[in-house]
Write a structure and sequence with these properties.
2 copies of one chain form a homodimer. By secondary structure, chain A is an alpha+beta fold. Chain A folds into 2 domains: about 160 residues, 60s Ribosomal Protein L30, Chain: A, CATH 3.30.1330; about 70 residues, CofE-like domain (CofE-like fold), CATH 3.90.1660. The first copy, chain A, is built from 6 helices and 12 strands. Chain A has a 5-stranded mixed β-sheet, with helices on both faces. A 3-stranded antiparallel β-sheet of chain A has the order 4-5-6. In chain A, helix 1 packs across helix 5. The longest helix of chain A is centred in the middle third of the chain and has 14 residues. The interface between A and B is large, with 69 and 68 residues.
């Protein structure tokens, strides 16, 4: 089995309410790589945020006292900090200029995923899609209308504890279960596997990044040849560790 | 640019001091996919441990009092726990039956990477290679002797905080720098990128897992078409976050 990974480039400028699925399909056709049945599409969250209007004008934001004081200490824009706080369910660590938060979805990442660099305009920031699983399902449905059966992973770039360098991970999924389980299977010596579950969607997101490069010039990667079982009820929920089971909150 | 990923299977049983590079090259030829210049080889640490004799007979291990008492509480083999402790520089979390440790290399993972399931024999466990960067360099050199210029990533399967499911990450590298830096680059709007460094070797390891499946039936993945700059001095050191900069120790 050989897996192929390639990027889709040449998407037109994306605006709120654009037909993202149609644009991806058209760009793929134009570059001679039409999206095919059983492809997995890895879609950078930034373009999903743009389509869904998840951009906030800084001029419209009134920062709180807390946002102002911390922004002042660390020479940050208090309006951006205010948006980060509003996107957060909980601050996990706030140390020096670093702010690690749990987003309303339950993802833990720097600045709650608020992105100042990719908004496409000065004075505006992008926030993560409100419901990235729903975004993924909408794209999968749009491709079904176009006659193509694809799984969709919405990806973002997160840091992690202990290891330098960020990697792309999944924040939304449609069509396939996010984890692959070995639970109950045994190796040839009768031991249960030490590896119990692989987070396949995170591995797909990471693999997609290899052809995307950063900064959304190639905002979509196609992974072809990866076998997946259809699961129309799939969401990222099983990837969010129960806080009771988490030693690093 | 299209990246191709495929597995190398059909390796003979691996024993201490086997010519691993020669075996990988021969198996690749036999399956009609000879290793080519500029391929990246993702090699599961288990087979490297076997070649390097990193197997420990449980019968030879005298557990400490501490190992015995904790193993007793959690119904574990005290000799395995003793090996985990010996492989550890420091215990990061010990909670319920879970033991997260920092290995002598500086990696943080469950059970210091001690693997009971893949040793190939009852009563024996595998530990991580002593110096996985050196293991990767030896493989890269062996391929150079065979006339092929490859980068090598030694991979293992680690859990992570906050997210369920494990993913493959790099624990050793040769030939290419482990991180790709955007530092000092600017987007079209003049903002510095929020993403500063990508951990490309972890993304390559994750991508390789997609064709390896677990349990070493396909212990090597070839990633073809990924561009990398040669760096003969590369090691994993830049990926190990300075404890001073780590909020989750």
């Amino acid at each position: 089995m050989t897996i192929q990974i390639f990027g889709i480039s040449g998407l037109p400028e994306i605006e709120a309410a654009s037909d993202l699925g149609g644009m991806i399909a058209a760009s793929a056709r134009k570059q001679g790589d039409p999206i095919a049945d059983r492809d997995v599409l890895i879609v950078t969250s930034k373009i999903v945020s743009k389509v869904e209007g998840c951009a906030i004008e800084l001029a419209d934001v009134e920062p709180s006292e807390f946002a102002m004081s911390w922004a002042d200490t660390w020479h940050k824009d208090p309006r951006v900090i205010e948006i980060v706080l509003r996107q957060s369910k909980r601050i996990v660590r706030q140390s020096g200029p670093v702010l690690i938060a749990e987003t309303h979805h339950g993802f833990i990442c720097a600045n709650s995923g608020v992105d100042q660099s990719s908004s496409g305009a000065e004075g505006r920031v992008l926030v993560l899609p409100t419901d990235p699983d729903a975004s993924a399902r909408a794209l999968r449905s749009r491709f079904a209308e176009l006659g193509v059966d694809v799984a969709v992973v919405i990806s973002d770039t997160f840091g992690r504890p202990w290891r330098e360098g960020q990697t792309d991970v999944a924040i939304g999924v449609a069509g396939m279960h996010p984890l692959y389980s070995y639970i109950g299977q045994h190796d040839p010596h009768g031991h249960e596997f030490e590896v119990q579950e692989l987070c396949v969607v995170d591995e797909l997101a990471a693999a997609g990044e290899l052809v995307k490069g950063n900064v959304s010039r190639v905002p979509v990667a196609v992974i072809r040849g990866h076998e997946w079982e259809t699961d129309d009820a799939a969401t990222m929920a099983p990837v969010l560790r129960d806080p009771q089971r988490d030693l690093f909150r």
